[in-house]
Amino acid sequence: MSSAISPFSKVPSLNTTTVLIVGTHGVGKHELAKSLLGIPTPYSVQIRTANELPLPPLTGSNERPKIDLVVFMIDLNVRSSIGLVENAVTALDVHYFMGRVCFVVKRESYDSPVAMDTDALISLRDSYNSPMLYGDVKIEQDRISVTRQILNLLEVAAGYKTNISPLLIQATQKGHFILTDS
């Protein structure tokens, strides 16, 4: 599996983190990216987006940064969305699933019909033992809540939290984060 993306294949950059957001076109990757960049952090956040994995080979002298956190976005209203994610997770090194991956589940509105079975989501979450965040990136309250949770996961994954590892966080949390009105 030489084309697999590995969290330990590159040296980390000083005070810089990189998030890779993967999802179908129109799922809200760019809205989430803008939100992640809009919240002040004591470190620099770089965002990369992709429609699928594995990533295409680089040409020339370009080099990819070390990817600290991978966010898979799933749209409940698009049936192909979960299939894309199920295929993409196979392009990651297994070490990413130790606290360096999360799934963001989006639904346009709660009045619209769901195109996929929620059992498939639960199976995906349980298979990869990774957190699943729920929220619509077009709704400001949901977007900010999901963004803050992703930044918390990112801080731990990048090693900015003393004495806390991604594996420790993963072992002590439930797999579901459900947004509630407060």
From TrEMBL:
This protein's UniProt keywords: Centromere, Chromosome, Nucleus
A single cellular component GO annotation: nucleus
Source domain of life: Eukaryota
Pfam families reported in the protein's UniProt record: CENP-M (PF11111)
PANTHER family referenced in this protein's UniProt entry, alphabetically: CENTROMERE PROTEIN M
UniProt name for this protein: Centromere protein M
Location of this chain's protein in the cell: Chromosome, Centromere; Nucleus
Nucleus recorded as keyword: yes
UniProt KW Nucleus keyword: yes
The species this protein was found in: Owenia fusiformis
